[in-house]
């Protein structure tokens, strides 16, 4: 069909530059080892931090929910698609997060779009870290609010922005809790103190911290002891929680407001019963099996130390997200391909997801990996890097 020649040209260009990527289907369940192109490899690219994607309790909960309530809901939440299990899960989530209320949306992405587009008008301003997630950036694009971008985790620059925006009605400072490409943690205590000083609201997107940081995986707010001082926590149910979805944990006012004004909430169908039941079971798992989080961190320390001993540049990571920074985009992808040949699945990530010249193979270990898996992976990193002259 004619009409897409201009798109094809751009794709051809990407092929030439070595940055065109095909999707890579898994032929097995997600796990510490997966089958790809018929080959059993160590998985180091999933967000399945705790291995919950196939936790028996969650699978069982999903199966029972399907049998009792069916495969889908048939409506958006605000018309006929709210099941009692949706509301029960939100109450459970709010209690878990130590907040007054919670509201679940279709995805973390949709949650950021909903919140930012709903609560900010041209009388307000949003102040955002330059390395915030794409869903925050796109959420900001949907508002008529003023916008200020501060340098990554730079508190002087944030204070400057707060000083310069005192005439706005509401000022919302928004940050990732854990930055997804570098694995560093936002300086949340300092951010909260500055926001209290300048009377601004704080919003934290804890996608990579939910299930990873804080007591039982409650996130960065709990990790820093800031319960009650952060206005909006956004979390995802799609990463460590192992299923699908996003949520806000905040006040009843914000929950009620988003039910009326959060466009993705209003105009997109609610989660199927299996999703909600599995997410709800995941909260029980977080409460009952804290050893999973301990194992995750134990594995993280082992793997990070191993990479650093081999001489790799892992940047400023403080969490299970550990980038192996290569630099050149094409070389990054070659390294990823070589790792695959050597038995490890670790995807290369390059511009525009990260800055030009900052290409990296991003690794995330999980609680499911054994020390043997991780040692085998480290051996593959060493071998692959030597074969390509990287180390
Ligand atoms: C992954 C991610 C999201 C999106 O979450 P989904 O539930 O996958 O849509 C939002 N924010 C951040 C910081 C993320 O890393």
List its salient traits.
Aspartate Aminotransferase, domain 2, Aspartate Aminotransferase, domain 1, 16% strand, binds pyridoxal-5'-phosphate, 2 domains, alpha/beta, 7-stranded mixed β-sheet
Give a verbal description of the structure.
By secondary structure, the protein is of the alpha/beta class. 42% of the residues lie in helices and 16% in strands. It contains 14 helices and 13 strands. Helix 8 links the parallel strand 7 (201-205) and strand 8 (232-236). Helix 2 (56-69) packs antiparallel against helix 11, helix 3 packs parallel to helix 11 (273-288) and helix 6 runs parallel beside helix 7 (188-197). The radius of gyration is 21 Å and the shape is globular. It starts with a helix and ends with a helix. Residues 107-109, 133, 135, 176, 180, 205, 207-208, 236, 238, 246 line the site of pyridoxal-5'-phosphate. Pyridoxal-5'-phosphate is lined by residues 107-109, 133, 135, 176, 180, 205, 207-208, 236, 238, 246. Its EC number is 2.3.1.47.
Q: How far apart, in Å, are the first and last alpha carbons?
A: 47 Å
Biggest sheet, strands in spatial order?
A: 3-9-8-7-6-4-5
* Total number of domains: 2
**Helix-and-strand structural type:** alpha/beta
Number of strands: 13
Taking all Cα atoms into account, the compactness measure Rg is 21 Å
CATH superfamily of the largest domain: Type I PLP-dependent aspartate aminotransferase-like (Major domain)
How would you spell out the order of helices and strands?
A: HEEHHEHEHEHEHEHEEHHHHEHEEEH
Instruction: Please state the average pLDDT score.
Output: 97
Question: Which architecture of the largest domain would the CATH scheme give at its second level?
Answer: 3-Layer(aba) Sandwich
The major sheet is characterized as: 7 strands, mixed
Tell me, what is the CATH class of the largest domain?
Alpha Beta
Strand fraction equals: 15-25%
Query: Ranges with pLDDT <50 over ≥5 residues?
Result: none
Number of helices: 14
CATH fold name of the largest domain: Aspartate Aminotransferase, domain 2
Bound molecules: pyridoxal-5'-phosphate
Helix percent reads 40-55%
Estimate the global geometry from the Cα principal axes. Answer: globular
């Amino acid at each position: 069909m004619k009409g897409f020649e201009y798109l094809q040209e751009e794709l051809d260009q990407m092929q030439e530059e070595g940055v065109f990527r095909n999707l890579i289907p898994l032929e097995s369940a997600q796990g510490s080892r997966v089958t790809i192109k018929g080959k059993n490899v160590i998985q180091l690219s999933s967000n399945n931090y705790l291995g919950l994607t196939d936790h028996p309790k969650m699978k069982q909960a999903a199966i029972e929910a399907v049998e009792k309530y069916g495969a889908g809901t048939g409506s958006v939440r605000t018309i006929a698609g709210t099941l009692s299990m949706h509301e029960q899960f939100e109450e459970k989530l709010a209690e878990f997060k130590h907040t007054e209320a919670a509201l679940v949306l279709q995805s973390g992405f949709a949650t950021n779009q909903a919140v930012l587009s709903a609560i900010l008008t041209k009388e307000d301003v949003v102040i955002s870290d330059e390395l915030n997630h794409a869903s925050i950036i796109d959420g900001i694009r949907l508002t008529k609010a003023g916008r200020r971008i501060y340098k990554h985790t730079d508190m002087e620059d944030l204070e400057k922005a707060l000083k310069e925006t005192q005439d706005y009605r509401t000022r919302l400072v928004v940050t990732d809790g854990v930055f997804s490409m570098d694995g560093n943690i936002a300086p949340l205590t300092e951010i909260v103190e500055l926001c209290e000083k300048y009377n601004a609201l704080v919003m934290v997107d804890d996608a990579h911290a939910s299930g990873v940081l804080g007591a039982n995986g409650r996130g960065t707010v709990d990790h820093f002891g800031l319960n009650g001082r952060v206005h909006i926590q956004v979390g995802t149910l799609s990463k460590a929680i192992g299923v699908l979805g996003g949520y806000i944990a905040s006040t009843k006012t914000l929950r009620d407001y988003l039910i009326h004004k959060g466009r993705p909430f209003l105009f997109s169908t609610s989660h199927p019963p299996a999703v909600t039941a599995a997410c709800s079971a995941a909260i029980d798992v977080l409460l009952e099996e804290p050893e999973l989080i301990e194992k995750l961190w134990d594995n993280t320390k082992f793997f990070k130390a191993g990479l650093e001993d081999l001489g790799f540049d892992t940047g400023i990571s403080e969490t299970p997200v550990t980038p192996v920074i290569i630099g050149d985009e094409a070389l990054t992808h070659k390294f990823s391909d070589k790792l695959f040949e050597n038995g490890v699945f670790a995807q290369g990530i390059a511009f525009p997801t990260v800055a030009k010249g900052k290409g990296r193979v991003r690794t995330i270990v999980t609680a499911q990996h054994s020390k043997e898996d991780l040692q085998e992976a480290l051996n593959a990193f060493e071998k692959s890097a030597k074969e390509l002259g990287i180390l």
